[in-house]
Amino acid sequence: MCSLEHTMSTTTTNQEVKTYPNGYTIYKPTQRGSGGAVGLNLNARKNAIFVEAASQSGERQFDWDAKIIMKWGLADIGTVLSVLQGRTTQAKLFHKTELANSSCELLANEEGERAPYTCKISRQEEADKSLRRVTIPITHAEAALLETALRTATERIMGW
Q1: pTM of the entire structure?
Q2: Among candidates 36, 39, 38, which has minimal Cα distance to 56?
């Protein structure tokens, strides 16, 4: 075995899986109390991003106890990045499990000068068919940070 090949294979097999305690959360409270928050966290062990969404429960408070959770793999991340990079105008993700159906939709708003994107996340429980939804606008600055976070997560998931 060539020493370069040996070094490369040893590095990847002996590398410890790094954890990433910091995520990126977008908070959108409203005066009417109908706002929401959406957060992303990279889980290197599961090679995925976990997206959490919570409805506003009070003034600057969010109901994280009743949050919606979605696990995004590389295909999901690519779908969302395609909207943030202007390649398409919407991303629709749908995940079905025995317990619930979850969906996330990212829309590019053509007339959205202040908030050029809208993110909608929902979960319907299979047992009682109850539905929870969180919808937030995303500004240009938030979209830039979101794109950077997703691109970085992709590199880390792929090990590049």
Answers
A1: 0.84
A2: 36
